[in-house]
């Protein structure tokens, strides 16, 4: 007996090595769905003091991991079973890559030699090959002694340069492989300086400042890369020292408070159209910025300056006259250092015009946000929630839907960095509950999730997860009875309802009651406000069913123009 224990103490195995490698790299939270071959891994992780959160669907665990990466600058880890679990997690991995969030999808997999000969193993699939085009890097570990290096590579790939999703394939066999404990310990790698600073070239900083100095109507656009960078003080100092109006992209809201005098948020179209020099900081000129051309940008000729860690991003859509390649913290600091004391603020004609437009638009909206209509419209309901975020600026706002998203983005002011989490680059539905869970877990702050009724449906079962872990999440379902609106009719006159319509007067609040949470049915902004304040005070998992006028809103929210138009009617 005694000899056996000594023998055991001198050995380690794949399970232990995965746990030791993650812990060595300060990764202590795992978002997973258990099953063969990773059930025991989750148990052993929990036994080893890691936080292992089990979800009801891997896609939601994956979205949680992706946003954990955005919030912490460390890769969020999603752990799944083979083939179907892996595929369920893959959407989130692709989403992380598209949004430049660091994440690692770790999936168990079947027996290599059976997979490769397609002999029909349990949950057989060539996962590595399938993951590759959807992520930044993909690795497979075949031997226990390579677990340390495999995890180190995955971490570095996820967070260095432009962050993104990484796939790590762990065949079932590896977990049970045994090796000498000391050799095992030596095989682990602590990743040193996983995302090294990348200093910009001094000449590119000077070139950018020269272009900015020549501007008459300069504009800064802050993107979610700027929020991710956690260079909040330097960014604010640079924007303020420059005196240039700025526009925050959706998830960059709050980097400076939306009420900041230089914010052009409420004068977005004027700012885009009339600007002559635009400096992008951690924002791509993709569809969300109309690719830097066309009607949205007006007739005034533009010069673009861009700060990004990814050199290939430059000139992706239009010419970038002054590219600055480096990490945002270093780039913005370099700009600040090189600006000099004699920096001249932009012409008051420009800053004044923007300010005037902002104030006019804010004043025009104000009375509509105070309406107490029943059924609620988006302005009345979001006016109430806007006040709640103003009073609780450290709460995290999660937001998805179409109208529910577009109205909330413009109506709700944010006051602190990384407090607004939403559908991101793809405008994907289903991120809501995963993001809410990770936000609560990673930050310990209360979370307010404002969800279209359709959007909520994509991940709604995770309210059980929220209740199970007792997370301080308040979900508000904007219930207009459908996708975009609840008023659609079946054009054939048949008995099926329209493709965009759900059950009338659905009682979503009863869903959370099934799991011991608090359910509230709210028909007016006052009721909504009361319910959400109570939830935020108590921290109890809550779902508020906010009844919204089914005719409010528009098809596809603010991006209806992206719908293709039918040319030939069906005979
Ligand atoms: P948004 O959707 O808010 O406009 P995007 O996702 O389009 O933002 O752009 C984010 C950009 O930020 C990406 O091009 C990415 O390479 C860049 N980025 C991310 N992190 C950093 C960083 N630390 N330093 C510099 N650029 C970064
Ligand atoms: C994964 C397409 C965009 S917005 C939306 C869908 C289905 C739902 C809008 O209705 P909701 O909001 O949430 O009730 P509201 O206020 O307008 O009524 N599948 C995925 N992603 C997307 N974007 C879609 C489908 C879509
Ligand atoms: Mg809806």
How does this structure look, described?
With 571 residues, the protein is α/β, with parallel strands linked by helices. The protein folds into 3 domains: 11-187, Rossmann fold; 202-355, Rossmann fold; 370-547, 3-Layer(aba) Sandwich (Rossmann fold), CATH 3.40.50. The chain is built from 23 helices and 19 strands. Strand 18 (518-522), helix 23 (525-538) and strand 19 (542-547) form a beta-alpha-beta unit. Helix 13 packs parallel to helix 15 (328-339). It starts with a helix and ends in a 24-residue tail after the last strand. The mean pLDDT is 97.
What value does the average pLDDT take? 97
Q: Counting H and I runs of at least 4 residues, what is the number of helices?
A: 23
Gyration radius, in Å: 25 Å
Derived from helix and strand composition plus strand pairing, the structural class reads alpha/beta
CATH topology grouping of the largest domain = Rossmann fold
The named CATH superfamily of the largest domain: Thiamin diphosphate (ThDP)-binding fold, Pyr/PP domains
Overall geometry: globular
CATH class of the largest domain: Alpha Beta
**Terminal Cα span:** 84 Å
Strand content: 15-25%
Residues in helix, %: 40-55%
Number of domains: 3
Low-confidence stretches at least 5 residues in length (pLDDT < 50)?
A: none
